Amino acid sequence: MRKMPVDRRPQERRPVDAANFEPGKRGGVEETEGANSGRHPQVADIRDLVTFRLAMLAGVIDRVGQSWLKSDYGLNIRLWRVLGMVAALEPVRFGELVHTLQLDKGQLSRLVKTLAAEDLLSVDPDPSDQRVTIVRLTDKGRATNREVLLAARQRNEQVLSELTPEEADTLVRLLDKLHPLLEHRAHAEETGQSLARSRRSQTIED
């Protein structure tokens, strides 16, 4: 029997009203009438979510950055971010780096040790509080940071080349607006979860 040809053309995604989102239907929802009453564009599936699209974009940026940093400077993306942030904040406390880079202490400790072994960072106790670790760039680290930062700026120019100057300014302004709002929300949710766990633990003990 002759097989019927398979239509492999991408199927059009149907927009939906986020207010009527019902899991379990095609793409999680069925088509509904009326405009979306919120600020988020209409959602047919996960690919339409702003947070998902930002996460995918960040993943692509990391893959590209990992490639050229490794081949040109022998760094990975996390080592470069630690080096660059120390350059921006030095002298900086280890704890401040943990918060700013959103890494756990173990991860950051390993990264700092790797950079220190390459003579890019110096790590010393705070003279006023021996329990606190202060991180600085070495002369080699400072020269490396300048070189990598210049290359990174040139690569960022390529990323923004498809935008007008006005669009590029708007993008940066919106990122500056969203970042502290999401930081605040993440902190509030983490604090709330910690408080909830504490209350559950206290209830069990009682």
Structure description:
Among the domains are: 20-31 and 38-74, no CATH class; 75-160, Arc Repressor Mutant, subunit A. Helix 2 (77-89) packs across helix 5 (139-159). It has helices at residues 50-73, 77-89, 94-101, 105-117, 139-159, 165-205; strands at 92-93, 121-126, 129-137. The protein starts with 49 loop residues before the first helix and ends with a helix. With 206 residues, the chain is mostly helical.
Features:
mainly alpha; Arc Repressor Mutant, subunit A; globular; 6 helices; 206 residues; three-stranded antiparallel beta sheet
Number of helices: 6
| Number of E strands | 3
The shape, in one word, is: globular
Strand order of the largest sheet: 1-3-2
CATH class membership of the domain at 75-160: Mainly Alpha
What would you say the CATH architecture of the domain at 75-160 is?
Orthogonal Bundle
Q: What kind of oligomer do you see?
A: single chain
CATH H-tier superfamily of the domain at 75-160: Winged helix-like DNA-binding domain superfamily/Winged helix DNA-binding domain
Largest sheet: 3 strands, antiparallel
- Helicity, as a percent range: 55-70%
User: Which percent band covers the strand fraction?
Assistant: 5-15%
Order of helices and strands: HHEHHEEHH
Average the pLDDT over all residues and give the rounded result: 82
Low-confidence stretches: 1-11, 14-19, 23-28, 30-35
Q: Would you tell me the structural class of the helices and strands?
A: mainly alpha
Could you give the distance between the termini? 72 Å
- CATH fold annotation of the domain at 75-160: Arc Repressor Mutant, subunit A
Rg is 24 Å
